[in-house]
Give the backbone structure.
Amino acid sequence: MILIFGTISVLGVKKMAEPSIKEKQIAFLKKHENEMNEYIENSAEFQISKITYNWDSVTENTIGNGLPKGAGKVIQIFGFVNNQENLDFRLDLQIDDSNLPDLNTIKYGQPLTDEGE
């Protein structure tokens, strides 16, 4: 009787453990959270004591320009300020060639608003 033993490819296991593009994008955003906070704080018309991001809300979307391919891709993230969920916002950042957010393109996709007013 001949026994054949299989081996598990180390590369296959390592590949499975690599973070996804979305995980890399979220890690990048978390690393640059201070820059995002500065953008929000500098644009607010009231005192901000705390900024909270909903990391589960991070999505990648194609922005339109009327063409089927669109004008590029953006990362969108929602959050709120001062521990009040009615003081919410959405930030949009274009994606660069390495599939990471470009901090130079940060803007509001949904301005900081108070839905309770």
Summary: The beta strands are 51-63, 72-81, 84-94, 107-114. The chain has a mean pLDDT of 86.
